[in-house]
What we know:
Blueprint: E1 5-14, E2 17-24, E3 45-52, E4 55-63, E5 75-77, H1 89-98, E6 102-109, E7 115-117, H2 138-142, H3 162-167, E8 174-179, H4 184-193, E9 200-204, H5 206-215, E10 220-223, H6 234-240, E11 245-249, H7 256-264, E12 268-272, H8 277-286, E13 290-293, H9 296-305
Parallel strand pairs: 5-6, 5-13, 6-8, 8-9, 9-10, 10-11, 11-12, 12-13
Antiparallel strand pairs: 1-2, 1-3, 3-4, 6-7
Amino acid sequence: MREYLSGLVVAIDSPSGSRTKTLPLDPQQDAAGPIWVNRGAETGVWTLLLLENDAPLRTFCYNAWHELPEAVGVCAHRGDNRVAPENTLAAIASAVAKGAHQIEIDLTSSRDGQLVLLHDLTLDRTTNGTGKPGDYTFAELRKLDAGAWKGEKWKGGKIPTFREALEAIPQWIQVNCHLKGGIGGAATREIVAMERLDQCFLACGRGDAAAARKVDPRIRICNMSGQRGADSAYPDQTIAMRAQYLQLKGWSDCTPRVCDKLRRHGVTINYYGTSDPVMFRKLIEAGVQYPLTDNLDAMLEVLKVMGIPPATAPLAR
C-alpha cells in the first residue's frame, strides 16, 4: 500500500501555537516506526491526515506531549563485552573507540582494599582463579588470567584497578560504577582523588549511597535499591533519596508518564538491558536515556539513524 501514499498533513496544536504542515512520503522509507516521531520533536496534540494520491485517506490523532530527552545515548555494559572480556581494559578501550556515551563497570575490593573490576561474587567464571576476590590481596589477583576464558586472543589479560579504568576513559564519557558490597566510601574517595565527580556515578543501594555521601555529598548516585518497576515505590523512592539516576528493568516500567516524572525531578533514566535494536529504539522513544547493552555496535547504528552521534569527542560548547 505504501507506494500509493503521497503525503501526510500534520496539524500541530502546542504551547507555541497551531500550524499545519504537509510532509511528502518517501515510498522507499522504512515504515518500521512512527515517521513523525523524532528526537526533540515538538510536544502537543498532532492531528494527522494521511493522503492517498493527494486525496484524504485517513485522519487520526497522536498525543505528543511526551518529549524525548536531549541527553540520550548507549551504555556499554561491562565495556564492549561482545568483542573483549568484560570489565577489562580491552573492553573499555573498544567501547571508548566506538563512541559509547556511558560505560558500566563493576567494582569490588581485594583483601587489602584495592578497588578492582569484577562482576561476579567469585573469580571462577572470568578468571583462572577460584573463590571470592576479597580473599586475595591485589598482588595475588593481578597474577590471575582474566582474558583466556573469552578466547586465545585475550589470554594473559589482567584484572584492572578502578584507577586504571578511569584513566582509560575520556572525561566526556559517563562512567556507571556498579558497586559490589560495602565500598561506597572507598569508591568515592578514588573518584574525588582523580577529580572525576562530574563523570562518574555510583550504582548502589542506600547503604553505599549514604557512605559515599559522607565522603563527599557531591557524589552522584544511581539508586539500585528495590528495582521493582514503575508500578512500585522505586521511582518515588529514587526521587525521595535525591538520587540523580535510576535503572529501570522491564519494558512495562518505561511508560512516558513515569519517564517524564523522573526527568522533571532531575533523574537520569538508565535501563537494564537490551541487545535488540527494535527494543532499544522503543526505549529511547519512551524516554529512557541510557539503555545498557551487550551489543554496542548495533545500538550505535540505531542512534545514528535517529541522528544521535557517538561520543567520540567532547560536545562543542
